Amino acid sequence: MKLQAVINNLELSGNLELLASQVVEGFISGMHKSPFHGFSSEFAEHKIYNQGESTRHIDWKLFGKTDKLYTKKYDEETNLRCHLIIDNSASMHYPSIKKQSINNLNKIGFSVLASAALMKFLKKQRDAVGLSIYSDAYDFYAPEKGSERHRHLLLNTLEGLLIKNKLNAAQTKTYTYLHQIATKIHRRSLIFLFTDLFQTETDQEKLFQALQHLKYNKHEVVFFHVMDKEKEFEFQFNNTPKRFVDVETGVSIDLFAENIKESYEKMMLHFQEELKLRCAKYGITYVEVDVKQNFNKILQTYLVERQKFI
Q: Exposure winner among 27, 44, 163, 248, fewest CB in 10 A?
């Protein structure tokens, strides 16, 4: 327990790979409580048996443990391509935290650690991974590769996001960079997008046109809607006069939170419901992500989407 407490308090910057390993190991150790019971550390080598398939590769030993039919997968079957996309705009650095740890993260810290954990899973599966980062520009692109050298490059790049101050950056137009990313990814891939969509120009029509561009080449797209739910969606602030500052533009307003809490919650709920409906319409997986929660939802989504993808 003491060791776990030390790990939980380690600063994210400088310890990203270690903490990502902790997230993955904790998730796998709890898999007996999930729909993936029985896979243990070998889950990467199996897929659910579909009626009508040959029974030749059924893992009967696993059937004895789980009472479910899974078929063994071989190396040539297991490889897929995954591309991670991270919004590094100013609003993703909310709330401001000097020392981020596994239990104390802002939106960019959560997205970075979630991405590193996904990379750990992808390494287990021998899958190729690529990375794109955007803010007010297309800051970084790396194509999908599976080498250890490439993985360390991506980890170092992710760590760099934790120390960059993005306050008062220029306008971020997510759809612009999604179009650019779509032109770079030529082979069918599983795509994970981490963003809060808090931008000065959120044009949903253009956003979903860009997401459709990604879908055009048969990519599977998962949209992780990253938020500090307590503050950004539920507007839970004590009722003393506060100055609220738009981190994208620097514009500020003084008010009592209680005076607008109800109308703010309604507006944000409407905003979220619109996103969910549009995602459903275009076959995009929408996942709400609260930075105050653990990473199980991220990793469970990956496992489900991977099964569907292959």
A: 163
Q: What are phi and psi of 96, to 5 degrees?
A: -70, 120
Structure-block tokens of residue 179? 């179009």
Token pair recorded at residue 125: 């599966």
Task: Name the burial class of residue 299, with classes exposed (0-12), middle (13-18) and buried (19+) by CB atoms within 10 angstroms of its CB.
Answer: buried
Cβ(31)–Cβ(37) below 8 Å: yes
Give per-residue pLDDT as tens, 239-273: 888 888 776 677 888 888 888 889 999 999 998 99
Cβ atoms within 10 A of the Cβ of 229, count?
16
Closest listed residue to residue 111, CA positions, set 234, 233, 268, 289: 289
Joined tokens for residue 142: 């790396």
Tell if the pTM clears 0.70, that is, is over it. Answer: yes
Continuous H helices in the chain: 2-9, 16-29, 60-66, 75-78, 107-125, 148-161, 174-184, 204-216, 257-281, 296-309
d(CA 107, CA 128) in angstroms, rounded, equals 25
With 0-12 / 13-18 / 19 or more C-beta atoms within 10 angstroms meaning exposed / middle / buried, residue 69 is: middle
The CA distance from 92 to 203, in Å, is 18
Helices and strands, counts by H and E, the chain: 10, 10
- Indicate the residue type of 217: N
Other Cβ atoms within 10 Å of 272 Cβ, number: 16
Cβ atoms of 301 and 114 within 8 Å: the answer is no
Flag residues of the chain having pLDDT under 70. 1-3, 31-47, 72-78, 164-171, 199-202, 247-248
- DSSP conformational letter for 51: T
Structure token digits, residue 223:
């949209």
